[in-house]
Design goal:
This protein is α+β, with helices and mostly antiparallel strands and about 200 residues long. Helices cover about 30% and strands about 30% of the residues. Helix 3 runs parallel beside helix 4 (about 170-180).
Length: about 200
């Protein structure tokens, strides 16, 4: 604080206001880390990868505990192709990578009807039982997180579902994939039965 020659009114230093403003202006202008939410989930091959479940297991050895991880991954192009893969590793990233590679090697094509499924279907795998029903446009996906991850990867946008048995994530996901593989459109059923002429007449 200084005193001028014309009076005793205190005058703050000229640099104090600027220094405070400068601290506010330049605070936090360092290099920013990339936002995790803004990362693209679609790899270069156009397939969307979703991690359904990560499990940790431990093994007691002489030196202590040794941990390993397993990751269940669903992958699809949202155009009717979907696959499931299970990967294991000593690190979470390694398990997810192996699961994605396994899912890519087991891609299957399913039948869709616009944004929903052609008909109601019921399937089971182990103790898991899954019921899928078509829904009108705009309904959305009424299902749990495991079923949602699988059907979203396949490209389904409107559907009703119910998990009736075991809640084991791996079995529910495999039951959902089995149910999707059971879907058939009207054209496919007529072709299997050798009734293509009916399809031509209806058109």
């Amino acid at each position: 604080m200084t005193i001028t020659s014309t009076g005793t009114t205190p005058v703050a230093p000229a640099t104090s206001e600027r220094s405070g403003r400068g601290d506010r202006e330049f605070r936090g202008r360092g290099p920013r880390r990339p936002n995790r939410d803004s990362r693209d989930d679609e790899p270069k091959d156009g397939l969307v990868e979703k991690v359904i479940f990560i499990n940790r297991s431990s093994k007691v050895v002489k030196g202590g505990r040794r941990f390993s991880f397993s990751a269940l991954v669903a992958i699809g192009d949202k155009q009717g192709r979907v696959g499931l893969g299970l990967g294991k590793g000593t690190e979470v990233s390694e398990a997810i990578k192996k699961g994605g590679e396994n899912a890519r090697a087991h891609l299957s094509t399913i039948s869709l009807s616009a944004s929903t499924i052609p008909h109601e279907v019921y399937s089971h795998y182990g103790g898991a039982k899954v019921l899928l029903r078509p829904a009108s446009p705009g309904t959305g996906l009424i299902c749990g997180k495991v079923i949602r991850a699988v059907v979203e990867s396949a490209g389904v946008k409107d559907m009703l579902s119910k998990s009736l048995g075991s809640k084991n994530a791996a079995n529910v996901a495999k039951a959902t994939q089995a149910a999707l593989l059971m879907l058939r459109t009207r054209e496919q059923i007529l072709k299997i039965r050798g009734l293509e002429h009916r399809l031509v007449k209806s058109i």
